[in-house]
């Protein structure tokens, strides 16, 4: 293989593709990236047996070929090369020669036959979503994906399309986040995408308005974002009937400034550390919310003046779970609904139902 390629294009591609490279793999080739040079394109892939990232960049190819090189060392070398034009050449011993200006490197590569094939699948369904919309929907829900592998189905989010409505639902047993938006698609389907895959989609997605094509197979999914493809397994299993968990009525309702409530909960959180998880106690009384927190470090109190409709409620929350929900609403004001001190808090925008978050309370000591 012998090619010339622009350093900036190569550096960007290698950095992104390396996100799918395993740092400690049982198969040595998986700690590398696969480079294929054919025609006028350089194809670069990373794969950890769960997620694969693949892209093409323009290159001047004098001799076609394939090789696997260490993702760690190749990435560092390319990033620090002095000139914009990079020459990469390999020989029969799998030695890779990298030249840019007066800088020259030789690194040992591996035969491409040692690299596992990325999942190949036949598309059963596919649809398009605007890049910015998909990023927003994932960001507003992925925080509620479980990191507990005892129930693998909840380590991913439910993607559901029905009657031209696209929903993403995430649940971890302590909270639930639902984001929905109308899209132009006639398919009706649902599948569960790993949270790790969604995080990679967020990192790769740009800020432009181009569309992301989502291709769904029997066991795998592919996100096509510009020149990049993210291929991932789907999670098999039965997802919770989330609609049945959302109360249809509320005994207590209020509208509150999101920023003010976040600031108050954040102040109460100062007495909680990684090893201390005392609940933030919220008393909804008349026209105010009284917040407090008591831990082995000390006590904190705060009051927010807010008109409240319905019954008085005393309820406690894990501060991090409550803050995650409030910070991902993206609205100046939120509507909060409660059904007593042991039922989840429901957080919605003041108008519309594009976002719903449920936060399960912590049992208070005197409850």
Task: Please summarize what this structure is.
By secondary structure, the protein is an alpha+beta fold. The protein has helices spanning 7-17, 71-79, 131-139, 195-204, 258-268, 319-327, and strands at residues 2-6, 32-38, 41-47, 51-58, 60-63, 65-70, 85-90, 95-100, 103-108, 125-130, 156-162, 165-171, 175-182, 189-194, 211-216, 220-225, 228-233, 252-257, 280-285, 288-294, 299-305, 308-310, 313-317, 333-338, 345-349, 355-359. The chain is 16% helix and 43% strand.
Characterization of this structure:
- With 367 residues, this protein is an alpha+beta fold.
- The chain has helices at residues 7-17, 71-79, 131-139, 195-204, 258-268, 319-327; strands spanning 2-6, 32-38, 41-47, 51-58, 60-63, 65-70, 85-90, 95-100, 103-108, 125-130, 156-162, 165-171, 175-182, 189-194, 211-216, 220-225, 228-233, 252-257, 280-285, 288-294, 299-305, 308-310, 313-317, 333-338, 345-349, 355-359.
- The strands form 4 sheets. A 9-stranded antiparallel beta sheet has the order 14-11-12-13-26-25-24-18-22.
- Helix 1 packs antiparallel against helix 2 (71-79) and helix 5 packs antiparallel against helix 6.
- The longest helix has 11 residues, at 7-17.
- It is elongated, with a radius of gyration of 25 Å.
- The termini are far apart.
- The mean pLDDT is 93.
């Amino acid at each position: 293989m012998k090619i010339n390629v622009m350093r900036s294009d190569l550096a960007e591609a290698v950095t992104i593709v390396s996100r799918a490279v395993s740092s400690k793999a049982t198969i040595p080739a998986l700690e590398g990236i696969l480079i294929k040079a054919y025609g006028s394109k350089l194809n670069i892939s990373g794969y950890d047996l769960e997620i694969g990232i693949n892209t093409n960049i323009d290159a001047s190819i004098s001799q076609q070929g394939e090789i696997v090189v260490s993702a760690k060392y190749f990435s560092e070398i390319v990033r620090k090369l002095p000139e914009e034009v990079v020459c990469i050449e390999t020989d029969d011993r799998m030695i890779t020669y990298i030249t840019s200006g007066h800088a020259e490197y030789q690194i040992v590569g591996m035969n491409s036959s040692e690299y596992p094939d990325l999942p190949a699948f036949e598309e059963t369904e596919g649809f398009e979503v605007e890049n910015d919309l998909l990023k927003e929907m994932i960001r507003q829900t992925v925080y509620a994906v479980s990191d507990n592998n005892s129930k693998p189905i909840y380590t991913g989010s439910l993607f559901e399309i029905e009657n031209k409505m696209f929903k993403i639902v995430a649940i971890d047993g302590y909270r639930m986040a639902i984001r929905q938006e109308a899209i132009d698609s006639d398919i009706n389907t649902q599948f569960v995408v790993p949270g790790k895959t969604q995080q990679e989609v967020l990192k790769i997605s740009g800020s432009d308005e181009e569309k992301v094509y989502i291709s769904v197979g029997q066991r795998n999914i592919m996100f096509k974002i510009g020149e990049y493809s993210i291929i991932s397994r789907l999670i098999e299993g039965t997802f919770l009937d989330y609609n049945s968990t959302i109360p249809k009525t509320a005994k207590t309702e209020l509208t509150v400034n999101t920023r003010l409530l976040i600031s108050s909960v954040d102040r109460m959180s100062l007495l909680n550390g990684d090893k201390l998880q005392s609940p933030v106690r919220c008393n909804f009384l008349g026209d105010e919310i009284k917040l407090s927190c008591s831990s082995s470090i000390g006590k904190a109190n705060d009051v927010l003046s807010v008109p409240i409709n319905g019954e008085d409620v005393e309820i406690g929350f894990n501060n991090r779970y409550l803050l995650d929900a409030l910070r991902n609403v993206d609205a100046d004001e939120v509507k909060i609904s409660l059904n007593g001190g042991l039922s989840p808090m429901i957080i919605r925008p003041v108008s519309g139902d594009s976002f719903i978050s449920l936060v399960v309370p912590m049992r208070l000591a005197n409850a």
